[in-house]
Amino acid sequence: MHRLGREKISQQYVPSDEDFPIVFEIQKYNGPRNRRSDPHGEGKAKLVNGYRYEGFFRNGVPHGRGRLALNDGFRYEGRWRKGQKHGMGRMYYPDCSWYEGEFRKDLRHGCGVYHYPNGACYEGNWFGDKRHGVGLYSYAREKIKLRGTWVEDVARGAAEVLFEGCRFHGYWDGEQPRGPGCFTFGTDIMVRGKFYCDAKEGGEEKTLVWQPEAIEKYEYAKLPLEPLPLPVEESDVSATSSSEEEECDSVAESLASTIVIGDE
């Protein structure tokens, strides 16, 4: 039987507050401006911290499609909204990992794919910059895939583990399966049993053990529950959503948006 848990699940790069400019302060700009002399339209800018942005502006901040090149290997290409990464985009990180998918208010949020530097990959749901919901994790060194429910960046709940030639259906807890489940071999045979941790005598290390209980003909109705999307509280949604009020422009802003061409 396959030995699970030899390779730990990788963690994605988490940028610190120092990794990104809090204020989009422009040192040099080349492109159109509005009547307030703010960058407005498609242009290029160099920021005071040395970062460079090329793309669309709206009233002085990135808005629309654009590319931001930061120091130390950071790079973002995609959609912006009022100076924040918002919409579809691709982000490259200093550890050679990268993410492609949805952003909301500068956070990975929605559906996206994260490629880890060791070759592992996660494809699925994100919420507030964390893996949250149903996702498929492909291990780097082992030809194993874990499709499960993720809670606050941790795989925990109903899961399927895909091997070459068979699947495990059961419950996943952090780094390994736990409790009752079953292995299926195509649609012919299923082996029901349970996983438990066995402590060696005289030692603290615990070994994950599979204890088979019955070999039966495959029946879909007898399989454990499949991974399901997680419910999200309305307060959590509003914290990362764009309100209708934010989407609308005031009359004053519209009048100030008349473009005047100018270079620096």
Structure description:
The chain is mainly beta. It has helices spanning 234-240, 244-247, 251-255; strands at residues 26-33, 41-47, 52-58, 61-69, 75-81, 84-92, 98-104, 107-115, 121-127, 130-138, 145-151, 154-162, 167-173, 176-177, 179-185, 189-199, 206-217, 260-263. β8 (107-115) and β9 (121-127) form a beta hairpin. The chain is elongated, with a radius of gyration of 24 Å.
Précis, in short:
With 264 residues, this protein is mostly beta strands. It contains 3 helices and 18 strands.
Strand content is: over 45%
Helix proportion range: under 10%
What form results from the Cα inertia axes? elongated
Q: Write down the oligomeric state.
A: single chain
**Rg, nearest Å:** 24 Å
The unreliable regions are: 243-258
| Total DSSP E strands | 18
Structural class: mainly beta
Mean pLDDT: 85
Q: Provide a count of the helices.
A: 3
Q: Sheet with the most strands?
A: 18 strands, antiparallel
